[in-house]
Write a structure and sequence with these properties.
It is a single chain. The protein is mainly beta. The protein has one domain (about 10-30, about 35-190): Beta Barrel (Lipocalin). The chain contains one helix and ten strands; from the N terminus they run αββββββββββ. A ten-stranded antiparallel β-barrel has the order 1-2-3-4-5-6-7-8-9-10. It is globular, with a radius of gyration of 16 Å.
Length: about 190
Amino acid sequence: MTDTPLEIPRRTLLQATAALAAASALGLGPSAAAVPNPTPGKPGDFDFLAGNWAIKHKRLKTAHTQDWDEFEGEATCWTILGGVASIEELRIPARDFSGMGLRLLDVTAKVWTDFWVNGKSGVLTPPGMTGSFENGEGIFSADDMDGDKPIKVKGVWDRITPASCRWYQAVSWDDGKTWEENWLMDWTKV
């Protein structure tokens, strides 16, 4: 594999996007109503992500501890369909792991949904997180389950510059009153 993001045929990207969008339309993802009063999303919000990236990961091993796992990764990202879709291929070579982030804008509702596909299963992992960008930060959230306990999950894109950005994930076990960050990714363009 080489470094240019244009090497995967556009048709393949469009087919993958269409399949995942169809899964979302079948109810495998949340509706725009999951985000109260979101700032309107617009085509191109994820244009900053297009390109090749080196990523420093820091992932919490066990909840409510300071036991972190740190490792390197890389990603190639594309913006397609006039900016209403963003595709990310995440790779962690040292762990023989890959996955795909898929961000789709519901143009009518003006809300983004951020989905994940684990490369080992090839299955869309619900729920997708819905949200939008405000004041230079993309904030996305979803209701999920931790075993049999309901939780809230959020993913945030911040510190966005032409050459870098950060994504982090946080979980709340008390309906959003407090949050624990459990995954931080510092992205640097290559």
